[in-house]
Design a protein that fits this description.
180 residues; mainly alpha; globular
Length: 180
């Protein structure tokens, strides 16, 4: 089975999962699940569509369904991710799931386009986008600092793989994903 087909199937499977906001489900109000679901949707969308995380985030709607147009709020999924994180136990780094928290925050932190520090934001949406990205970067950095003291090699490997995935997406060479 080709990588393109596997990525597409995985994305479809993730899109079929219910949101934590869906009532009367086993996952209802499980915001750790919701944060993981949103990050996984962004990640698989990027691979499936061969687009950067920032573009993939614009194609993931609030319920996880594919969108054919860019939503009015360009980073709806990123804002939802930050909202879900804010309602979890990030103070304790998700206890025994701190590696997962790091991955979720790292994916989220990479979903915004590069911010030009020398240029002032021109509207409220840009200010919000900058704020969301900075919050996700802050959470990823804090989690990484704690993790790297206890598990330096796995953190370094995870960071290298995430960067490698971004490079492969940018190159458009989907055939080499099996080697990361």
């Amino acid at each position: 089975m080709s990588l393109a087909l596997r990525a597409s199937e995985m994305r479809e499977r993730l899109e079929s999962l219910p949101s934590a906001h869906t009532p009367n489900m086993a996952t209802t109000n499980d915001l750790v699940y919701e944060a993981c679901r949103i990050a996984a949707l962004i990640y698989t969308t990027a691979i499936d569509m061969s687009v950067p995380f920032s573009v993939a985030a614009t194609h993931v709607s609030s319920v996880g369904q594919r969108t054919t147009q860019v939503p009015t709020t360009h980073y709806v999924s990123t804002e939802l991710l930050l909202g879900a994180l804010g309602r979890t136990d990030i103070a304790n780094l998700w206890k025994y799931m701190s590696g997962v928290l790091y991955w979720v925050c790292a994916v989220g932190a990479r979903t915004s386009a590069t911010i030009n520090i020398g240029r002032q934001p021109s509207n409220l949406a840009q200010i919000r986008e900058i704020w969301v990205r900075r919050c996700l970067i802050m959470h990823a950095t804090r989690t990484m600092i704690v993790l790297v003291l206890e598990h330096p090699a796995p953190v370094l490997i995870a960071q290298q793989r995430l960067l490698r995935v971004q490079e492969l997406i940018a190159s458009g060479n989907r055939k080499v994903f099996g080697h990361i």
